[in-house]
Structure formats: structure tokens, C-alpha cells
Specification:
single chain; 366 residues; alpha+beta; five-stranded antiparallel beta sheet; four-stranded antiparallel beta sheet; flat
């Protein structure tokens, strides 16, 4: 009976104060929605909550990477397996597509460490299927296949890398080594020719005084001439520098065209610099003006006396070479000899320079 009386009293109170209760409810919801709008929209509170929630996925992938780096491959594999099963990125259109690729790459590496061949190869197949346009995914598959001596899979994967990124030197060398080890010497000249002739411009900067010019030189091992505007003061003297950013080059000629003088008749001529020694940095000097780059800070520097009338233009003859390792060139050279391709061997020998930084053309950030 007491419970019934309390219920009746509540109903009576609601009937008697119905209008006030409705107004109070509307006012309360207005305040709640207003605060929610200000916090969630104006101050991006809701977005920050979602971002904080989503940020846990990259952090989890990083934890798996740390487990693998510490050498705990079994724990890394188990952890990454579980993470892979619930990872949200299922296509390259997802915001964490690169994290998904990293997860699968780490998982394949952990399987290699614990000798799980079938799982490692299957993981790489999923990695390539996730984004077949990313050359790194094909290279991971190639490395995994090579780790388990699966030459056929490795060959196909390396061909996949080179179809996308023909200048990737580690893949060029691995692909040629597969052919060389299998005595398939006929496969090697076309592979090497494709690498040497793949289009890639080498970045070379020339600085003299306050003036600077950036050149883009085809890296095909052939000489190229450039004549570009270059404004420098009259009677300039000091160091001039060619920065090659990791590319091996030959600089055979530098010439300045003097500036026209107002009221003075005549046709300016290019004045070639006299041969002189260069100071070489981050590179090995093979001969004056010829370097094999070691790192991305490769450069040649020398003292120059500019024309008395100033400089209006500068001309160069430059040859830029793609990177090549000594072991790779030995395989290429022997393959040409085995196929009796003497003329092409001499041509390719002239267009090849052992050395060069992988950061120049081979490795780059997407």
C-alpha cells in the first residue's frame, strides 16, 4: 500500500507540474546539447577522442616492432598475429594502410626468424595483394622467398619490384644473382641494360659566390652538355662547388660566358676553365673531375677566377652514373663475356661506375 501511495503521489505531482517539468527538461537538454556542441564541434573534442582511440593502432604495431627488434621473435609473431586479425585497415583507402603494410612486413620477418616458411610466404602474398603498386611489398616478398631458398617466388617478386622501380639496386643485384647462380647468363645483359637505361635524372648543384644553379642530368652514363643562365659579379674569385647528392659523375668541362657590357660592341664567348685539381668530399676521386660517390654529401670544390666582365651563363659537360657494387659488376661483366657480347660489354663498361649512394635513385620515400 505504501508503494502504491508513493506512485499515486508521483503521478499527481507530474500532473500538477506537467508544464514546468516539460520546460525544465527542454532547458536541461538545451544545456546538454549546447555544451556538447561547443565541446564536440567548436573545440573538436569529439574528434580528439576519436583520434586518441584510433592512435592506439600505430602504437600497437610499434610494440610488435620493438618485440622483434629485441630478438623475441616468437612473442612478436604471436602478438602481430593477434593484431592482424583485428586490424581495421582492410584496403589501401584506409587511413592506416601504411601501418597495415608495416604490420604484415613485421609479421613476415618474425616468421622468418622462427623458421615458419609456409606462414611467412602466405603473409607476403597477403602483403602484395593489399597494395601491389608498392614496390616495397614485392621486395619484402622477395627477401622472404630468398630466406627460404624459394628461387621461383623470389624471381617473380623481384620482377615485380623492377617493373615499378627499375632503379632499385638491391633488387637488380638480387635478380641478376639468381640468374648468375642458375647459369642463365643470357638473362643478365637485358636486365643490366634496363637498369643502365632506366630514366632517372641526377640532381647536381653548381655554386659560385652567391650564384647557384640546379641541373638535372640523365643518369645513363653518357656525357650531356648544358648551357644555363648564371649571374655572377665581375671579377669574382673564390671556391666553386659541384654538389652531386650521392651520384657518381664526371665533369669534363666548365665554361663561362661573360656578361654583355652596355655600349661595348662584341659577341661574348664561352671561356673554358683551365684544368685544375678538385677537392673531393664524401666520394672517391678516380681522376681529376671524376668521382665515385660514397654518400649523399658528395661534392667537388675548386678555386675559380671568374671573367672580369662578370658571368651571364655557364656551360657544363657532365656524365652521371647509376650506383653499382663491385660484386654486381663482376657478375654482369662475366655474363657478357660468356655470351661473347664484346662490343656491348665495352659500351656498358664505359657507362658504368662502381660506387654511388643508394640514396641517389635507388631508395626514396613515397
Amino acid at each position: 500500500m505504501a508503494s502504491g501511495s508513493a506512485l499515486d503521489a508521483t503521478r499527481r505531482f507530474v500532473r500538477e507540474h506537467e508544464r514546468g517539468l516539460i520546460i525544465a527538461w527542454i532547458a536541461f537538454m538545451t544545456i546538454v546539447l549546447g555544451v556538447g556542441f561547443v565541446w564536440g564541434i567548436v573545440f573538436r573534442g569529439a574528434e580528439r577522442v576519436v583520434d586518441a582511440f584510433e592512435a592506439r593502432w600505430p602504437a600497437r604495431v610499434e610494440h610488435g616492432a620493438q618485440l622483434l627488434a629485441k630478438g623475441d621473435s616468437k612473442a612478436a609473431a604471436e602478438y602481430l598475429e593477434a593484431l592482424d586479425a583485428k586490424f581495421p585497415a582492410q584496403s589501401v583507402k584506409h587511413r592506416f594502410d601504411r601501418e597495415r603494410e608495416r604490420l604484415l612486413t613485421l609479421l613476415a620477418q618474425s616468421y622468418i626468424s622462427i623458421d615458419k616458411k609456409k606462414k611467412a610466404l602466405a603473409t607476403c602474398e597477403r602483403l602484395v595483394a593489399f597494395d601491389p603498386r608498392n614496390w616495397r611489398n614485392h621486395f619484402t616478398q622477395a627477401q622472404t622467398a630468398l630466406a627460404f631458398s624459394e628461387g621461383g617466388v623470389a624471381k617473380s617478386a623481384l620482377d615485380g619490384v623492377l617493373a615499378i622501380h627499375p632503379l632499385h639496386l638491391p633488387s637488380v643485384e638480387a635478380r641478376i644473382k639468381l640468374a648468375y647462380d642458375g647459369s642463365l647468363y643470357a638473362d643478365i645483359p637485358p636486365l643490366w641494360r634496363a637498369y643502365v637505361e632506366a630514366f632517372r635524372l641526377a640532381d647536381v648543384d653548381f655554386t659560385f659566390g652567391a650564384a647557384r644553379v640546379a641541373l638535372e642530368v640523365p643518369s645513363d652514363g653518357l656525357p650531356h652538355r648544358f648551357a644555363v643562365p648564371f649571374a655572377a659579379a665581375a671579377g669574382l674569385h673564390g671556391p666553386a662547388q659541384l654538389s652531386t647528392h650521392g651520384w657518381s659523375i664526371d665533369i669534363r668541362d666548365i665554361a663561362f660566358r661573360s656578361a654583355m657590357r652596355v655600349g661595348v660592341e662584341g659577341t661574348p664567348q664561352f671561356l673554358s676553365l683551365a684544368p685544375a685539381a678538385w677537392i673531393v668530399n664524401d666520394a672517391t676521386e678516380l681522376a681529376p673531375g671524376r668521382i665515385s660517390a660514397v654518400g649523399v654529401h658528395s661534392s667537388l670544390t675548386r678555386e675559380i677566377d671568374g671573367p672580369a666582365d662578370g658571368i651571364a651563363q655557364v656551360a657544363f659537360e657532365i656524365t652521371a652514373y647509376k650506383a653499382c657494387t663491385e660484386s654486381l659488376w663482376r657478375m654482369v661483366e662475366q655474363s657478357y663475356k660468356n655470351r661473347l657480347l664484346w662490343d656491348e660489354l665495352e659500351n656498358m663498361r664505359a657507362r658504368t661506375r662502381i660506387g654511388g649512394s643508394l640514396a641517389a635513385g635507388s631508395l626514396y620515400e613515397d
